[in-house]
User: What shape does this take?
Amino acid sequence: MTDTTLTVQNDTGLHSRPADLFVRTAKLYESTITVHKGTKSADAKNIIKVILLNVSQGQEVRIEADGPDEEEALKDLETLITSNFETVNPQVKI
Assistant: This one.
């Protein structure tokens, strides 16, 4: 299992379009991926659960991945968040 902690800088946090991109990126990987905000956690492949975390701009999230492609998954999700959801994996159809 691998994890990383990031601060969401996007204006809308992890809502609507950013959450959609986050979930579609997570679904590219076989690993189990969980996103944590404080004491709450959600399956990173479930858009409703990710939106219900209510992550706003400036808040920290911890992303945890467990599986055969965990490092690749975390790297891709980290790039997505640190680029303010502008750098998207080419496999994700926008």
